[in-house]
Amino acid sequence: MATPSMDRLSRRTVAFVLAGGRGSRLKELTDRRAKPAVPFGGKTRIVDFALSNALNSGIRKMAVATQYKAHSLIRHCQRGWSFFRAERNEYLDILPASQRVSEEKWYLGTADAVTQNIDIVDDYDIDYVLILAGDHIYKMDYEIMLQQHVDTGADVTIGCLTVPREEASAFGVMAVDADDRVTGFLEKPADPPGTPDDPAVTLASMGIYVFRWSYLRELLQRDADDPHSKHDFGGDIIPWIVENGKAVAHRFTQSCVRSSAEAPAYWRDVGTVDAYWKAHIDLTDFTPALDLWDRDWPIWTYSESVPPAKFIHDEEDRRGLAISSMVAGGCIVSGTEVRNSVLFTMVNTNSYAQLHESVLLPYVNVARSARLTRCVVDSGVRIPEGIVVGEDPEEDARWFRVSEGGVTLITQDMLDRRAAAS
């Protein structure tokens, strides 16, 4: 029998989203915005996935801690997540690093971001705190993880990915016993441990934690008084609990939301230009691993009021078409060939242009006869007439950011420097 909604653990939980990181590996994409505010998937932002998972899981109290270049993120949350009603005891609070504890003290680490807001969390009158990273792409029912936390009597429950052992050195990983109790927490080990049921795989931390608030509150206060601590969940809080309390791993495969029973468990860290580009190109597959069309588990966001996409011209070499692509509202594809690409809101393209395996963020304008291949174009960029990018890596590298995987990142500043030099 299903648990009555009034008894759901999610109703007694606050989702605390850590969204203050820059995401420097995304290079110029985070020059003006924090990583969680980077657009993703044609119309959403990265942070929308954590927030939507919380909402779809039944959580109606959320807090978003911001720090690095937070304006874009704060504006997005205000515009897209302002539908909560305080009179129904639901809300989304934005908690910028505001020197509330000391005039010289910003958020010193992930745990400190919660510590500095203890009084605010107290006011939520909740039993559980769900700590979330605001910069990953996935779908997950947090209610299942909360239920495991209660059933096992854990002090902390840690969301974990199952990854091949040879790839696990890039993560913080868990050593677990047969009951998935965490016996060791290792940060990027050279020889990651396998699991009792499969020595070929390792459990890697997702940066998702469940605590009873009274327990975490006491831990945070103790950590704040430790001059040797970096005040970080992964570096300080979790290792302490593994040593002195009960930490239990929660496997993502148990709570991930899939498009079908056969679909793989989808989770991506789009923290590099290559990973960001690849995740978008994957969305153009015939059956994408990430189902953005699922009406039972939607990804909520701020939606601008824009007209439908429009395709015009039907002449040889001047035909407005998009094949195996995603084209958002407000776009005008005018005599342009678009293949295996993602066009965000209000992108305009002009005659004889070609876009192949490219990701164009909102409000990009592509002039006539431009050719872009394997590119990521930042928002608001004006691509000049006749430019060719993605076919000559050496020439591209003179003006633009070319990734290790051969993806070219284009910003307006880069184009302006190129124009000034010519």
Automatic annotation (TrEMBL):
Secreted keyword on record: no
The keyword Nucleotide-binding is annotated on this UniProt entry: yes
Pathway where it operates: Glycan biosynthesis; glycogen biosynthesis
Pfam families registered for this protein in UniProt: Hexapep_GlmU (PF24894), NTP_transferase (PF00483)
Residue ranges of every copy of the Glucose-1-phosphate adenylyltransferase/Bifunctional protein GlmU-like C-terminal hexapeptide domain listed in the record: 307-410
InterPro entries: ADP-Glc_PPase (IPR011831), ADP_Glu_pyroP_CS (IPR005836), GlgC_bac (IPR023049), GlmU/GlgC-like_hexapep (IPR056818), NTP_transferase_dom (IPR005835), Nucleotide-diphossugar_trans (IPR029044), Trimer_LpxA-like_sf (IPR011004)
Catalyses which reaction(s): alpha-D-glucose 1-phosphate + ATP + H(+) = ADP-alpha-D-glucose + diphosphate
Any GO BP annotation: glycogen biosynthetic process
HAMAP family, per the entry: GlgC (MF_00624)
Protein role: Involved in the biosynthesis of ADP-glucose, a building block required for the elongation reactions to produce glycogen. Catalyzes the reaction between ATP and alpha-D-glucose 1-phosphate (G1P) to produce pyrophosphate and ADP-Glc.
Xref: PANTHER family: GLUCOSE-1-PHOSPHATE ADENYLYLTRANSFERASE (PTHR43523:SF2), GLUCOSE-1-PHOSPHATE ADENYLYLTRANSFERASE-RELATED (PTHR43523)
Record-given protein name: Glucose-1-phosphate adenylyltransferase
Organism (species): Hasllibacter halocynthiae
